[in-house]
């Protein structure tokens, strides 16, 4: 009998909006956060426009985290995961995750968000595996600010999932995502794909055709 795997995107799917900027503000404080945003306006706009967005993301991350101590930042991330992140979680999507856990399904988060805060949040809610963006750390325990692996989006999400569990054909797979670009490959590969366009709607309204995905591909111009 095949094991069942449930794969969730985080930002925009489980969480209302992106957690990255919220973590920057939590870490920097209000004044320093706004100064950082002003100084990095060009890179932020480039990122939002999806033009060299990983390069732009690296620039912003470097300006925020370069030279910071790993242990100190990790402690702040743990606090953020407990005190801030829960306020932005969509309750009905989270209930769906809990349902999978009750069925003893393997629950996996694949997200562009930072592993710094995603991992402690995932441990708190008993997620089996977290695939998230890692930051480079020197031998002295200092952040360079650069991305250590990949910023997981699009096909990179599916490749990372396959590197973790092998072929999705060996499992019964459920996938949940909100983006017709960032999540499309994982959704297309799943047996049961949920495209979360309105998190407030009943979850089953987001279910795509589990065999053909024809309606979804047509709606979001997948290919």
Architecture blueprint of SSEs:
Blueprint: E1 3-8, H1 19-28, H2 30-39, H3 41-48, H4 53-65, H5 70-83, H6 91-102, E2 106-114, H7 115-124, E3 129-133, E4 135-137, E5 143-147, H8 155-165, E6 171-177, H9 184-189, E7 192-195, H10 214-220
Parallel strand pairs: 1-2, 1-6, 2-3, 6-7
Antiparallel strand pairs: 4-5
Helix pairs in contact: 1-2, 3-4, 5-7
Written description of the protein model:
With 223 residues, this protein is an alpha/beta fold. The protein has one domain (3-220): HAD superfamily/HAD-like (Rossmann fold). Helix content is 45%, strand content 17%. It is built from ten helices and seven strands. It has a five-stranded parallel sheet with strand order 3-2-1-6-7. A two-stranded antiparallel ribbon has the order 4-5. Helix 3 packs antiparallel against helix 4 (53-65) and helix 5 (70-83) packs across helix 7 (115-124). 33% of the residues are buried. The model is unreliable at 216-223 (pLDDT under 50).
In DSSP terms (H or I, runs of 4 or more residues), the helix count works out at 10
Reading off the top of the CATH hierarchy, the class is best stated as Alpha Beta
Helical proportion?
40-55%
- What does the radius of gyration come to? 18 Å
CATH architecture label name: 3-Layer(aba) Sandwich
């Amino acid at each position: 009998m095949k094991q069942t795997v449930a794969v969730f995107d985080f930002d925009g799917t489980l969480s209302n909006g992106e957690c990255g900027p919220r973590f920057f503000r939590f870490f920097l404080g209000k004044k320093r956060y706004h100064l950082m945003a002003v100084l990095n306006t060009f890179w932020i706009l480039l990122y939002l426009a999806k033009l060299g967005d990983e390069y732009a993301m690296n620039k912003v991350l470097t300006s925020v985290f370069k030279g910071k101590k790993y242990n100190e930042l990790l402690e702040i991330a743990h606090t953020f995961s407990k005190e801030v992140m829960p306020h932005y979680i969509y309750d009905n999507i989270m209930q769906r995750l809990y349902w999978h856990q009750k069925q003893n399904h393997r629950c996996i988060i694949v997200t562009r968000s930072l592993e710094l805060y995603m991992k402690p949040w995932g441990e708190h809610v008993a997620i089996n595996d977290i695939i998230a963006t890692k930051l480079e750390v020197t031998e002295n325990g200092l952040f360079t600010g650069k991305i250590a692996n990949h910023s997981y989006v699009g096909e990179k999400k599916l490749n990372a999932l396959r590197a973790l569990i092998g072929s999705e054909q060996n499992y019964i797979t459920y996938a949940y995502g909100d983006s017709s670009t960032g999540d499309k490959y994982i959704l297309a590969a799943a047996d049961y794909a949920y495209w979360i366009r309105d998190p407030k709607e009943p979850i089953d309204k987001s279910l795509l055709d589990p065999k053909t995905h024809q309606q979804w591909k047509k709606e979001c111009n997948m290919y």
